[in-house]
Amino acid sequence: MPRTATIGPAVYKRVNELTAEGKNRTEAFEVVASERSMNPGTVSANYYRTARSGGGTTRPKTRARKATTTSRARAQAPRSRTASQPKTDTDLTTLANQIGDLVQQLVRQVEERDQRLRELLG
Prior knowledge:
Largest sheet: none
Helix content: 55-70%
Distance between the termini: 62 Å
Structural class: mainly alpha
Order of helices and strands: HHHHH
Shape: flat
Strand content: under 5%
Number of strands: 0
Oligomer: single chain
């Protein structure tokens, strides 16, 4: 049998108490995180997970947008290139050259650091 959740509801209750006192949620998450020795992101995740499961909505409902084009019109429209697709082989060559230059720079920096360490220890 699964355990009864205790942390999420306790976090949810405490955050709501702090927001009722005038703090915004971000501040409340930080206060609860320091009280419970947790990360504010973890507190936030617990809060919103509990809010969703308990039926309490925390986000305003949005209206559905009206479709501007039909599926057929979209299917017949010419497909454009996405940002992730390279335009030409020269783009790939340029990127490869940049990567090579950065790797060489990193190697130089590591060698310089190693040399300094040898001098300090040596």
